[in-house]
């Protein structure tokens, strides 16, 4: 079916007090697995391409984006395409022509005033192009090999009053909030601050997004959705599933050289991981 927009999926989810799963993709196998997993659950899904993934693909956005668009157009469920954690203005400006309906502009590394100014400029440009735009306030840590922030470190949590002002002044369509998760977690041990999430949901009139969800246990994810999270970002969980399955296959078949053999095993492991996450959010 034709691509849908991230904005319509998230707006509908927020109104229903549910959440849409958004999966970061790096290879065509990731794309196919996310769609197959979503189809198995009869659920809409968001495919996310991060700036780091573009860097991995020799800095070229279009090859993976074109593949994702083609796969989405043949999907049996609604699929949206989202450009994730973008710091490059040049990459931001490639989004509309590449098939993306939404962008997460990442100024969270900056001091508050600089983050607001950069995000406001990105929002003004994105809205003129018809793009839905997400931002982040508060630092999760875990990106690009940095350690997760201590729960009590300055800026580790999103302040509700600051978030209210940030959303009003920047005009963003959604806000990723720091409530206890961290990027790139390989164990599901995160404990979320549900009281803070409740206060953020009460202070803001835009959908809330949870980053670093691979490290969040099922019960915590369910509670987060009940508390106001409308978009759940998952990346590392897919890589764990794929890598583990390929390791096991190659250990059992050391003679294997046909990449289709082990990539298919890795892809199917990701299909199951996608379905499991969607099942928790349903």
UniProtKB/TrEMBL annotation:
Q: So where's the catalytic machinery, residue-wise?
A: 84 (proton donor)
Name any cofactors this protein relies on.
Zn(2+)
Q: Specify the protein name.
A: Fructose-bisphosphate aldolase
Q: Supply the InterPro entries for this chain.
A: Aldolase_TIM (IPR013785), Class_II_FBP_aldolase (IPR050246), FBA_II (IPR000771)
Tell me the residue numbers annotated for binding Zn(2+) 2: 106, 136
Listed A to Z, the keywords are: Metal-binding, Zinc
Quote the PANTHER family the UniProt record gives. Answer: D-TAGATOSE-1,6-BISPHOSPHATE ALDOLASE, D-TAGATOSE-1,6-BISPHOSPHATE ALDOLASE SUBUNIT GATY-RELATED
* Binding note for cofactor: Binds 2 Zn(2+) ions per subunit. One is catalytic and the other provides a structural contribution.
Out of the domains of life, which is the source?
Bacteria
Which Gene Ontology MF annotations are present? aldehyde-lyase activity; zinc ion binding
Keyword Nucleotide-binding attached: no
* Chain sites annotated for binding Zn(2+) 1: 85, 183, 211
| GO terms of biological process kind | carbohydrate metabolic process
Q: Which SUPFAM superfamilies match?
A: Aldolase
């Amino acid at each position: 079916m034709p691509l849908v927009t991230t904005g319509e999926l998230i707006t509908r989810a927020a109104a229903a007090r549910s959440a849409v799963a958004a999966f970061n993709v790096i290879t065509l196998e990731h794309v196919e697995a996310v769609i197959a997993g979503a189809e198995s659950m009869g659920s809409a899904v968001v495919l996310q391409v991060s700036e780091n993934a573009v860097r991995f693909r020799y800095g070229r956005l279009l090859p993976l984006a074109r593949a994702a668009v083609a796969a989405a157009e043949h999907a049996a469920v609604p699929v949206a395409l989202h450009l994730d954690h973008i710091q490059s203005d040049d990459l931001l400006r490639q989004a509309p022509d590449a098939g993306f309906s939404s962008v997460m502009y990442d100024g969270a590394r900056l001091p508050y005033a600089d983050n607001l100014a950069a995000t406001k400029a990105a929002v003004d440009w994105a809205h003129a192009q018809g793009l839905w735009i997400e931002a982040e306030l508060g630092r999760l840590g875990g990106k690009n090999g940095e350690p997760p922030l201590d729960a009590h470190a300055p800026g580790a949590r999103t302040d509700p009053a600051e978030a209210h002002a940030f959303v009003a002044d920047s005009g963003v369509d959604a806000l990723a909030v720091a409530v206890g998760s961290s990027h790139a977690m390989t164990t599901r041990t995160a404990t979320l601050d549900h009281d803070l999430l409740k206060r953020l949901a009460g202070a803001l009139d835009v959908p809330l997004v949870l980053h670093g969800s691979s490290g969040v246990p099922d019960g915590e994810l369910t509670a987060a959705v009940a508390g106001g999270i409308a978009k759940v970002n998952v990346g590392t969980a897919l890589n764990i599933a794929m890598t583990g399955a390929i390791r096991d296959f190659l250990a059992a078949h050391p003679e294997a050289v046909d990449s289709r053999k082990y990539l298919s095993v890795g892809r199917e492991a990701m299909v199951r991981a996608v379905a499991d996450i969607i099942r928790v959010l349903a």
